Amino acid sequence: MADDARELTEEDFASAIPARLRRRLAKGRFEGGRDVAALRHFVRLTQVQFAQAMGISVHTLRNWEQDRRRPEGPALALLRIAARHPRILRENLEHVA
Fold first, then answer.
1. In three state form, how does the secondary structure of 31-74 look?
2. Which pTM was predicted?
3. CA dihedral 58, 41, 72, 70 (to 10 degrees)
Protein backbone atom coordinates (compact mmCIF):
# COMPACT_ATOMS: atom_id res chain seq x y z
CA MET A 1 0.00 0.00 0.00
CA ALA A 2 1.51 3.30 -1.10
CA ASP A 3 1.62 6.11 1.43
CA ASP A 4 0.47 9.01 -0.79
CA ALA A 5 -1.37 10.87 1.96
CA ARG A 6 0.08 14.21 2.79
CA GLU A 7 0.49 15.33 6.37
CA LEU A 8 -2.28 17.59 7.64
CA THR A 9 -1.27 21.17 8.35
CA GLU A 10 -2.43 23.65 10.96
CA GLU A 11 -4.38 25.35 8.15
CA ASP A 12 -6.18 22.06 7.44
CA PHE A 13 -7.24 21.77 11.07
CA ALA A 14 -8.19 25.46 11.30
CA SER A 15 -10.53 25.20 8.30
CA ALA A 16 -12.08 21.85 9.22
CA ILE A 17 -15.76 21.65 10.09
CA PRO A 18 -17.54 18.68 11.63
CA ALA A 19 -19.07 16.23 9.15
CA ARG A 20 -22.48 16.66 10.78
CA LEU A 21 -22.37 20.42 10.19
CA ARG A 22 -21.26 19.95 6.59
CA ARG A 23 -24.13 17.51 5.95
CA ARG A 24 -26.61 20.03 7.40
CA LEU A 25 -25.20 22.82 5.24
CA ALA A 26 -25.31 20.59 2.17
CA LYS A 27 -29.05 20.27 2.77
CA GLY A 28 -29.33 24.06 2.80
CA ARG A 29 -30.03 24.32 6.51
CA PHE A 30 -28.01 27.38 7.43
CA GLU A 31 -29.02 28.29 10.98
CA GLY A 32 -27.17 31.58 11.17
CA GLY A 33 -24.15 33.61 10.29
CA ARG A 34 -21.75 31.21 11.97
CA ASP A 35 -22.71 28.56 9.42
CA VAL A 36 -21.92 30.84 6.48
CA ALA A 37 -18.62 31.83 8.09
CA ALA A 38 -17.79 28.16 8.78
CA LEU A 39 -18.36 27.31 5.12
CA ARG A 40 -16.19 30.24 4.04
CA HIS A 41 -13.39 29.16 6.36
CA PHE A 42 -13.77 25.56 5.16
CA VAL A 43 -13.08 26.61 1.57
CA ARG A 44 -10.29 28.88 2.83
CA LEU A 45 -11.46 32.08 1.23
CA THR A 46 -11.46 35.61 2.56
CA GLN A 47 -14.72 37.51 2.70
CA VAL A 48 -13.78 39.35 -0.50
CA GLN A 49 -12.88 36.12 -2.34
CA PHE A 50 -15.98 34.29 -1.12
CA ALA A 51 -18.25 37.17 -2.14
CA GLN A 52 -16.64 37.33 -5.59
CA ALA A 53 -16.99 33.58 -6.07
CA MET A 54 -20.67 33.73 -5.05
CA GLY A 55 -21.37 36.81 -7.17
CA ILE A 56 -22.52 38.87 -4.18
CA SER A 57 -21.25 42.00 -2.49
CA VAL A 58 -18.95 41.80 0.52
CA HIS A 59 -21.58 43.87 2.34
CA THR A 60 -24.17 41.13 1.74
CA LEU A 61 -21.78 38.44 2.97
CA ARG A 62 -20.99 40.42 6.10
CA ASN A 63 -24.69 40.88 6.77
CA TRP A 64 -25.15 37.11 6.56
CA GLU A 65 -22.16 36.35 8.77
CA GLN A 66 -23.25 38.91 11.38
CA ASP A 67 -26.86 37.65 11.42
CA ARG A 68 -28.29 40.93 10.12
CA ARG A 69 -29.70 39.11 7.08
CA ARG A 70 -30.27 35.52 5.99
CA PRO A 71 -29.48 34.10 2.57
CA GLU A 72 -32.61 33.26 0.58
CA GLY A 73 -33.62 31.76 -2.76
CA PRO A 74 -30.79 31.51 -5.29
CA ALA A 75 -28.15 32.53 -2.74
CA LEU A 76 -29.21 29.71 -0.45
CA ALA A 77 -29.06 27.30 -3.39
CA LEU A 78 -25.52 28.46 -4.20
CA LEU A 79 -24.46 28.02 -0.57
CA ARG A 80 -25.93 24.52 -0.58
CA ILE A 81 -23.97 23.65 -3.74
CA ALA A 82 -20.81 25.16 -2.24
CA ALA A 83 -21.23 23.01 0.88
CA ARG A 84 -21.58 19.89 -1.28
CA HIS A 85 -18.81 20.79 -3.72
CA PRO A 86 -16.49 23.38 -2.10
CA ARG A 87 -13.99 23.28 -4.96
CA ILE A 88 -16.58 24.91 -7.19
CA LEU A 89 -16.24 28.19 -5.28
CA ARG A 90 -12.47 28.18 -5.66
CA GLU A 91 -12.77 27.30 -9.36
CA ASN A 92 -15.36 30.01 -9.90
CA LEU A 93 -13.10 32.54 -8.23
CA GLU A 94 -10.40 31.77 -10.81
CA HIS A 95 -12.83 32.69 -13.61
CA VAL A 96 -14.10 35.84 -11.88
CA ALA A 97 -10.75 37.36 -10.92
1. CCHHHHHHHHHHCCCCHHHHHHHHCCCHHHHHHHHCCCCCCCHH
2. 0.82
3. -80
| CA triple 49-51-57, angle to 5 deg | 135
Domains and CATH numbers, the chain: 18-96 (1.10.260)
**Stretch (H or E) spanning 7:** none
Task: Encode pLDDT of 69-95 as tens digits.
Answer: 999 999 999 999 999 988 888 888 888
CB 64 within 8 A of CB 58: no
